Amino acid sequence: MKTKVQQYVDGVGGVRMWGFCPAMDLMDAVPGGGDANAPVNILSLMAGDISSCLKTMAQMRRHAAVRPVNLYMVEKHPEVLARHILLLAIFFDDDLGPRECRHILESQCPSILTM
Questions:
Q1: Is 1 among the domain residues?
Q2: Distance (Å, rounded) from C-alpha 75 to C-alpha 3?
Q3: What HEC string does the chain produce?
Q4: What is the pLDDT of residues 65-103, one digit of tens each?
Q5: What per-residue confidence (pLDDT) applies to 113?
Q6: What domain range includes position 105?
């Protein structure tokens, strides 16, 4: 017998193309101790949404100590991984201006702009 949460997830669909929470800066969860030059490793397991990773990269200059960040994303469905790659290509495209990039990201990933 399935729980109500499992029934809900089955009703939503098999492939999640967005997350269930607003985007957050993942560097806020990193403790300040340790080596200041050591890279920060962040693992995202089947989140279905890349908005937190994009928000973390967009707000890197906000942090006092700039440390290298390694983001690892694991997804079960290739459709979600393809969407992540597409959004990262848009994010890092130098030919797009900030306004065009923001417009595309807002339409494809609306939770990135929530606080």
A1: no
A2: 24
A3: CCCHHHHHHHHHCCCCCCCCCCCCCHHHHCCCCCCCCCCEEEEEECCCCCHHHHHHHHCHHHCCCCCCEEEEEECCCHHHHHHHHHHHHHHCCCCCCHHHHHHHHHHHCHHHHCC
A4: 677 888 888 888 888 888 888 888 887 888 888 788 778
A5: 56
A6: 36-115
Q: Is the separation of the CB atoms in 56 and 69 below 8 Å?
A: yes
Instruction: Judge whether 11 lies within some domain.
Output: no
Q: pLDDT tens for residues 8-25?
A: 666 555 666 666 778 888
pLDDT of residue 112: 58
Contact 26, 47 (CB under 8 A): no
Distance CA 109, CA 71 (A): 18
- Which structure tokens are listed for 50? 């890349």
Residue 87, sorted as left (phi over 0), alpha (psi -120 to 50) or beta, turns out to be alpha
Only one residue has tokens 């999640």, namely: 16
**Angle, helices 78-91/98-108, rounded to nearest 10 degrees:** 160
Number of structural domains (the chain) is 1
The Cα 110–Cα 38 span in angstroms is 32
